[in-house]
Amino acid sequence: MKIVVFGANGKVGHRVVAELLQRGHHVRAFVHSRSNLLPQHDNLEIVHGDACSAQDVTMALDSIDVAMSTLSSWKSSGEVLSTWASLVVNSAHATPALRVVSLTGSAVLQPKDHAAWYDYLNRVVLRIIAPRVFHDGAQHIDILASSSLDWHVLRSPVMRVKPSHTYQLSTHPPLPWQTIPYDAVARALCDIAEKPRVEHRTPFIVPY
């Protein structure tokens, strides 16, 4: 498959690129600035652009099977995820078979989640300390859900640089103290991109 990775020079993004290349995919790495984290590879194309630019996003989606986002609003002044999602949906007429795989935090809950009281407390805390980040993650899910695209959003707890291990996808949020390796999140995103059918649209990733 030919896959574009938005945010490819980030902590998750460069790991996703490496994993996809190892699996034999053709990867278009969409980056905002130069990065030394990306490898040199015959199947890798690096393009520079702005994930909030309609022109740049439309060009990045040309001849693509899967659009993957590892973008984040934490260090941005704008709503990066929701803007990106809107641009992808608006470009869908040119790529109706496009699969979209995105990433956000586990505090963004959905109505059918099997959430406990402490999960709602975790959401309240995030809405207090980072309201823009929380709103951006939630809104980008709503935008994708309103489209006709084949979309999935992986919801992750805090990510750490630590030895990788197996993971599972669940409708139950991770426990408040649980963390997950960056490498496990990268593998999960790639697995979702490859699977012909994924049971849940917005699974949580939890350690296994």
From TrEMBL:
PANTHER family, per the entry: FLAVIN REDUCTASE (NADPH)
Domain of life: Bacteria
Stretches assigned to the NAD(P)-binding domain: 7-196
This protein's name: NAD(P)H-binding protein
Organism of provenance: Candidatus Mycosynbacter amalyticus
Gene3D superfamilies hit by this protein: NAD(P)-binding Rossmann-like Domain
Signal peptide: none
GO molecular function (one): oxidoreductase activity, acting on the CH-NH group of donors, NAD or NADP as acceptor
InterPro entries for the chain: NAD(P)-bd_dom, NAD(P)-bd_dom_sf, Polyketide_Oxido-like
